[in-house]
Known about the structure:
Blueprint: E1 24-27, H1 34-47, E2 53-56, H2 67-81, E3 86-88, H3 92-102, H4 104-122, H5 134-148, H6 150-157, E4 162-165, E5 168-171, H7 186-191, E6 206-209, E7 223-225, H8 230-233, E8 237-242, E9 245-250
Parallel strand pairs: 1-2, 2-3, 5-6, 6-7
Antiparallel strand pairs: 1-8, 4-5, 8-9
Helix pairs in contact: 3-4, 4-5
Amino acid sequence: xxxxxxxxxAKPEFDSPLRPAEPFFVIGDIHGCDALLGKLxxxxxxxxxxxxxxxxxxxxxxxxxxxxxxxxxxHRMQGEAGREFMICLRGNHDQMLIxxxxxxxxxxxxxxxxxxxxxxxxxxxxxxxxxxxxxQWVDARDRLREAIGxxxxxxxxxxxxxxxSGNVLVAHxxxxxxxxxxxxxxxxxxxxxxxxxxxxxxxxxxxxHGHTIVDRARPTNGRIPVDTGAYATGRLTAAxxxxxxxQFLST
Length: 251
């Protein structure tokens, strides 16, 4: 007697070729790890790829102990390289810092829970209890704003939420797989989308992103993650993207 059986349907795979318009490096979430950033940049310089741009996916602050040093370093580096050759994107933690500067009492308690205390400490500003008065929150904001400086604050506020080269989109937290790159919402690019890791893109675009920590950086169905949890693991990761290939480097 023969038993009927169902042939398993193969899961769809993302098969678009990787075609950036030019080679570029991407560095994952730094989170206040200035020493690791300096070490990784040294590794990238050893590769000696003179035409490759440098893209940072955001989350420069919080969690690690040296957010102030990180912001000073990358602000200086971009000033020396020019915004055409070094692209600094905004991450959700960078946005939380901006939100704190705009409305400290409303946004401060949440920010401090998710790493803002370490950022304040890096600027020699004491932390606050969540029940602090409005005057105390405003005072902490004012002291932080003075320590950051107008140049760095203004720079932070102008950071873009995405950058694209060829069929490669770089954004902090990924993208809506059902929307084209040109129609992505800032909130999605900063905080992520529930379908990002489960729904394949149909437009052939690759997405390089941070935000979600992975044990090992590797391409998966059109997604290239570069956040390896530097503040917790000691591994800050970069990717070099060229036509048809991606190479990873870590501290």
